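User: My advisor, Dr. K., asked me to get a structural model of this assembly before our group meeting. I'm new to this, so sorry if the format is off. These are the inputs:
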Amino acid sequence: MAIGIGLIGTGFMGKAHALAYRSARAIMADVPEARLSVLCDMPMDRADAMASQLGFDRATDDWTALVADPDVDIVCITTPNGLHREMALAAIAAGKNVHCEKPLALSLEDAEVMAAAAREAGSSTLVGYNYIHNPAVTHAQRLIADGRIGRPVHFRGWVDEDYQADPEFAWTWRSTRSEAGLGALGDLGCHLVSMSHLLMGPIESVLADTQIAHATRPLPDGSGRGTVENEDTASALVRYASGAQGTLCTSRSAWGRKNKLDWEVHGTRGMITFSQERLNELRLYVNDGPKAEQGFCTILTGPDHPPYGAFCPAPGHQLGFGDLKTIEATAFLRAISTETSAYPDFTDALAFEQVIHAIDTSAREGRRVSL
Amino acid sequence: MAIGIGLIGTGFMGKAHALAYRSARAIMADVPEARLSVLCDMPMDRADAMASQLGFDRATDDWTALVADPDVDIVCITTPNGLHREMALAAIAAGKNVHCEKPLALSLEDAEVMAAAAREAGSSTLVGYNYIHNPAVTHAQRLIADGRIGRPVHFRGWVDEDYQADPEFAWTWRSTRSEAGLGALGDLGCHLVSMSHLLMGPIESVLADTQIAHATRPLPDGSGRGTVENEDTASALVRYASGAQGTLCTSRSAWGRKNKLDWEVHGTRGMITFSQERLNELRLYVNDGPKAEQGFCTILTGPDHPPYGAFCPAPGHQLGFGDLKTIEATAFLRAISTETSAYPDFTDALAFEQVIHAIDTSAREGRRVSL
Amino acid sequence: MAIGIGLIGTGFMGKAHALAYRSARAIMADVPEARLSVLCDMPMDRADAMASQLGFDRATDDWTALVADPDVDIVCITTPNGLHREMALAAIAAGKNVHCEKPLALSLEDAEVMAAAAREAGSSTLVGYNYIHNPAVTHAQRLIADGRIGRPVHFRGWVDEDYQADPEFAWTWRSTRSEAGLGALGDLGCHLVSMSHLLMGPIESVLADTQIAHATRPLPDGSGRGTVENEDTASALVRYASGAQGTLCTSRSAWGRKNKLDWEVHGTRGMITFSQERLNELRLYVNDGPKAEQGFCTILTGPDHPPYGAFCPAPGHQLGFGDLKTIEATAFLRAISTETSAYPDFTDALAFEQVIHAIDTSAREGRRVSL
Amino acid sequence: MAIGIGLIGTGFMGKAHALAYRSARAIMADVPEARLSVLCDMPMDRADAMASQLGFDRATDDWTALVADPDVDIVCITTPNGLHREMALAAIAAGKNVHCEKPLALSLEDAEVMAAAAREAGSSTLVGYNYIHNPAVTHAQRLIADGRIGRPVHFRGWVDEDYQADPEFAWTWRSTRSEAGLGALGDLGCHLVSMSHLLMGPIESVLADTQIAHATRPLPDGSGRGTVENEDTASALVRYASGAQGTLCTSRSAWGRKNKLDWEVHGTRGMITFSQERLNELRLYVNDGPKAEQGFCTILTGPDHPPYGAFCPAPGHQLGFGDLKTIEATAFLRAISTETSAYPDFTDALAFEQVIHAIDTSAREGRRVSL
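Assistant: The format is fine. Below is the predicted structure of the whole assembly, which you can bring to the meeting.
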């Protein structure tokens, strides 16, 4: 019996969800089939066209109908962040499993309500922190857990893009706190926090600064320039519950960075580094063997780094962005079918997002903020 | 009306074909839907299991039935190379379109027969030289065609893996010329020739050497060591019809190389280089602007390099191996629906494979071989 | 008339000074000859041996004699940091020019006294921030000054080594604040600040955290473990006088990093990045030309990046660490002969070192510290 | 008693020799002092100026006087290749040690005469194949000798620059076979052969092709275009005495390559690769340990790779081109003082240069040439 997918939204992430669920079983074999049941978008002809393209059984322009649809087991929410709360709460209330894009919501309060609702309802939930499902990253996680680099003592991470690097890039609602919430932290920073959490465990406190690099942007109607209200860059000094320390940095105005999501874990016996723009590579340095032969080893992912082998039996052939989303969808299908929990669920994601809001608070108030 | 796919073989390439055709329309939008109609493998329970996993309507263990099936518009042949000829000829005779994995056949004679049959029948054919469909590579092709690096005067290419680098890797039928045909040239070298052809045009003559690096390998039954009959490495000095020259090198015994398929095009105004293990990057040097600022530019593919944008609207998010196969399948679906020809068809592929056989001949006879 | 060099200390930096002054004129041509006059080390036989090896006219084990020697025009101070103040003050009092290794002194107070003395005496001074003399770095400085990447809005820098990464590395006086002063900040961090200053101008305030990653180390006499008093890592959020922001990070416990001194300057039109472990390369991204061709350009230094050409007329042949020191010594010889000032002199260096002390203060007091 | 240096020529290589001998003992300690005795160049005022700059005792414009000078122990020959023979024979006849730049001579016949003369006279000689003295390269040599990558079965090498990549670069005597001899092979290719020899042992035969990419070049007097007579590129298939095979390629018309001298050694247990434009790095892959952790290790040279430590006690601080020349000069000073032989002497270098001439012959005659 296939698991029915109801997808709200057909932008970048909507399409990514559809493709991932379409292919999950064909790729992974040992996972339940997903059936693309209902697609919701507006206007209706867009919904129809995308349902046809992506292979959904039917389309709607009424998300409440989708949420109520008995054929829908998983509600995928890929709409603008400000809509996540209402949709997720409705889906939870309707007894659905919810796969929501990150960040959970505009405000931490909304995210808390969502997580609480999911916990109370016992819903299975998953949040779209797709980068942590990369076989290179989960291999790093295993290496660290196995003590390969000793005790992790320091972490550095960066997540940068350049989509707002051009000062003449137009002002949009994304520049407002009321409609968009956080800036680079909400778009990008939370991905980095998810990596940090996976590799280093929870953060205990942050001390941060943020920056609006481009104070105004041209209004799209040509009537002058609008004020940018949310941060272009954010940087935080973090302390982990483990006693480790680190820095987390993000920018949406970093020319040349297309999907930089880089990090390094400093351990007492070695170091691991990773760069998302070369997502099939992991670099490992271990203080082992002759000094004259020590160096960073560039490991190319392959079948020895599961679930790479489900995509391709030959190493070094490279996974892509869409493949990471497929691994994520697989995790949810498995969790639902085995009634276990997927990672990161709403509660896990709330913990990530508390960090980005704490960074924002620290920067605004000029003080260390505890979590 | 969907285009029906009949797939023979469910190994590495079989699965890759299935996944590509499953997703092509969902990703590309403006391409006909493909329907996974019939899957053939042996034994029957394997065929059934894979048909279920990959989403085929039905399974068979009789490839002749698949070829004859009226629901099948495209016959995908992903079986061992020695079987290609018989299957392709039958499919052509049945009036099907044929998507065959590379190389076309064990021997050049077989490949010639296949290409002739396709031409005579007016069949649409496509051969699985998937790497040339990479947006980075087709961007390079455009740059060269536009004269961005001037007149191409020299080419260097390498295609290396390490799957036979271990001297204790067991002897198999792949070590025999009778069953496997060429060694590294057939497995890997032909991919390089496809790149060379795309970027530099046809090769006029070759002067080559080959090497069996591991003369014997342990027999799987433990009874001693078997003789390796085909080449572990091949290297060729080539002259192009354009007057350019170059070198083509391949090895299946190159430790550390997982999918190296690298090349550089030397032009009179610049240079382009590419490395398959970083398939989302192109490096371009142009003799333009201030000397103090000249250098190789690392271009990360994105929506400016079509059809990347069909997979992801954000640059730098990376395509994977499977995505290249989807672009290839898309090309065939489009060709069939518009009754134009796809590239490379059997005749195009024959030209590539004539080169690897000429390299083999040159090496065995110690003389320059013209094409 | 050659400029006489009196060198105190023959360790890593002492030898580097000697080699640099020996070769400066032979390499640069248009710079006064330096004569290696007096070398001071202890004990006397070590001084004699090193004077012979390095080519000094004579040796002494009494640095006060060296400072008083009429043949000495430049006093080079390469002794442990705790000795810099006394020696520099004596040299200034004796009317000498002073070339002192970084950091100026253990404490900021000592550094202030030294800078004040130099200013009052009108001495020519230079501090050994050799990395900023790299032609790649000064080329970056020019590119920024020329507006090639627009207005610099953000800076990130890291300076890491692994010489104290091993938890079992023995405890020494370097672990104490009384004898060694700061830890990673004093050894490494100040180099990064010198880069930041050169490229971004003065820092206005810092908000920082530091970490002792290895709380104790084995005592060399085997009697147990000694307490480490100074920082293994430091991280700072900085605000520049220009309005830009950034982060500065350092670690002496970063496995695999041998001389990482990396930075990136984010501008409104582009980005420049640099990595000291590949000191002959600069990476430049500019939002110019067709989007499909944009990427980071790796510029290899050559004669177009002066004074590279004095070392080698051919590009890409690579300068080494010693060559940077030669450029530094040349700057001082020229400054002295033209009675202009060299950069960075004691006052300039004091500004760098105020930053590392502000970072330390901020970390200890948990508050933003203004400069 | 210092060893007296007589240097003929003050271009790129002349200066490099002077700097290397000036600093050798200061850097290396356990090597005899070299004294810069006599410098020869023309006209006399150039000789005087350079003698002053470089620190020679005296200057001359008569090389025969230099060769006869009793203060001269080593005659360094850095003049155009066509002059090497006469000068070297005179120096050998005068009982001098000879340090000659590569290649030995325009023609193989001249080189043979020189090698024979040196052998007969029992002269100590050295030829300037400086790149093989790189600590990274000699470390690779040790790794191979120790069996770290098993039996070497294949070699690939490239040496490329772009100094003649521009089709409008003016015609000079360097374009003629009579005055310049070989083209890219003589300038660049012989360096690659020296690497190949060091790492793989002697070459037994070659099969090659060459190319004149730019058939004519503008005459400097504006009177039209002159014919280019020697090769812009050369490529060879080589067989080693050991049974290994490989390819050697060179181009002087490869845009973007400034000092590419890259190679890879394929062994039965691993691979080593090197790139001259990153001369302080060696990449090593060994089939050891868990498959999931295998990858190319980037080794940064340091004190564990002698004689790096003589230049700098800290790893990763980078040697430069000049430092390689210093290591070369040191080898000669040591050889002379211990009456042992330096590598490569005239006879060794002759073996390298026989290979480039064999490549030229093979290309002209279209047949495999044995050595």
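One thing worth pointing out at the meeting: Residues 202 and 351 of chain D are 8 Å apart (CA to CA).

User: Perfect, thanks a lot.
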